Amino acid sequence: MKIAIGCDHGGIVLKNAVNRAIADCGHESCDYGAFTAESVDYPDYAVKVADAVVAGEADLGILMCGTGIGISIAANKVKGIRCAHVTDAFQAQMCREHNNANIMAIGGRITDADTAYKLVKIYLTSQFQGGRHQTRIDKIAAIEAREAGK
Ligand code: RB5
């Protein structure tokens, strides 16, 4: 798979660990920046990764900011994105199995690099379970469609 990654200055500390986890899972990462620790605005990177996932240029995405919160909120504004803000292994597993999250967001100021490595590996190796979970995702898409019509 191709995995799009993006971060701001608060998340860049996790980039090496995230790239290592992606490679160790046998996938290719595609880096949409940021590339330095200079202060930047996380929505600019959220939208690049979200657009890549929606366009099919990437299969999944990983976003990083200081907390993972802002960048996940921004990504979830893009139609078709289900971005999960994740802090532990169970969330990393469930966001794929139940929510079919197509982006996972983590925070460089709340999650250390070793944990980030593990979370990405769990996220990339978990499988969506479908069934009743698909029904619920369809309902999320219906909300999205309703909002677009306003
Ligand atoms: C940047 O200082 C910080 O606000 C950002 O990385 C993130 O934590 C926002 O949610």
UniProtKB/TrEMBL annotation:
Protein name as annotated: Ribose 5-phosphate isomerase B
Keyword vocabulary terms for this entry: Isomerase
Entry annotation: catalytic residues: C65, H98
One term of GO molecular function: ribose-5-phosphate isomerase activity
Binding site for D-ribulose 5-phosphate: D8, H9, G66, T67, G68, I69, G70, N99, R109, R132, R136
Alphabetized PANTHER family for the sequence: DNA DAMAGE-REPAIR_TOLERATION PROTEIN DRT102, RIBOSE-5-PHOSPHATE ISOMERASE B
E.C. designation(s): 5.3.1.6
A Pfam family that the UniProt record links to this protein: LacAB_rpiB
SUPFAM superfamilies: Ribose/Galactose isomerase RpiB/AlsB
InterPro entries: RpiB, RpiB_LacA_LacB, RpiB_LacA_LacB_sf
Gene3D superfamilies for this protein: Sugar-phosphate isomerase, RpiB/LacA/LacB
Gene name per UniProt: rpiB
Keyword flag DNA damage: no
Gene Ontology BP annotations: carbohydrate metabolic process
